Input
Amino acid sequence: MRANPNFQKLPAGYLFPEIGRRVRGYAAAHPDAKVIRLGIGDVTEPLAPAIITAMHGAVDEMARRETFRGYGPEQGYDFLVEAIRAHDYQARGVEVAADEIFVSDGSKCDSGNLQELFAADAVIAVTDPVYPVYVDSNVMAGRTGAPGPDGRYPGLVYLPSTAQNDFCPSPPDRGADVMYLCSPNNPTGAVMTREHLTAWVAWARQHDALIVFDAAYEAYIQDDTLPRSIYEIAGARECAVEMRSFSKRAGFTGVRCGFLVVPKELRATGAGGERVSLNAMWSRRHTTKFNGASYVVQKGAAAVYTPDGLAQTGAQIAFYMENARILRAGLAKAGFAVYGGEHAPYIWLETPRGTTSWQFFDELLDRAHLVGTPGSGFGPSGEGYFRLSAFNSRANVEEAVARLGKVFG
Ligand SMILES: *Cc1c(COP(=O)(O)O)cnc(C)c1O
Output
């Protein structure tokens, strides 16, 4: 058969394999160095007790003929969908109907799968730096050319996120078919204000664009006046889908559960110029290609919304956010310009003395035995920046801050 030629456009898994290669090389040459990894985009705390209890109970149900369950509803069990509606939306004054919520095995899959709804030649806009999944999945689908010398793919619209715009670019003058927005942001840790999100909704409605709103880090927002859902903005139901995940809010990175919200007002233009419902299309796609998230997993996810589950997962997030505070304070004291980390588990810092992201990676590893993620790995505008993650033990975070003070302070 003839293979999909678009895969050749992707530089083969460059960022994290290259980090691994450099760390292994350094550790082999310096066997006594105690390397601390602050590059991790994965939670470190174990699942909360309320979730474990619920999942154990669900496993026991599966063990008995009377309570065994086979295929469930593809869209998700009612007990989870209703908990989502009540706690994530109604509690913030937002009405989302049960048949607008599609439970899945996580947002990474959802963000990749969603583009099956886009026309083959749809114009895709992203922020730069960006969560690489948005870009790479569209490259695979053939919506770009091969990357240029600056690492950008022709055909994509890039909106630089820099210190000048508080890492929240404003809508461009031109339109696009799709705009990916992630707030709180991975990698920059920036959070969008209500005013900002309102401007994006107005832009999308003006240009008949779809906003794909990734709210994976919504639970890390510390200021209750900031929007957690794009549907808190009037008019968003006509122009936005929203991705949510239990990965970062409840430690489900290895358990796998998320959901996509597709409002019934959402319309896009079909081949003959007619308006088609994205909810109907997504429902068709989801029920054709997905057989539902596991019952045990959905029971665990529903337990997140119980009083114990909310208290326990809230305490985990507070723990990570205290790590972020300690990192921010330590970096600032050592003279770094730091961003993010206030409503997100990521800190985005400016590399010192004009060093490149990779030069700083090597310097940090060599002088402080710390590993982070070079900003340039998330897009050309990430050059000169560096991401540190708050997903770690308190002891590692405190040791990292002590080393930063000693080496750079
Ligand atoms: C971690 C993360 C997700 C969650 O992905 P899952 O597949 O649900 O684990 C989504 N978006 C961003 C930007 C993330 O960093």
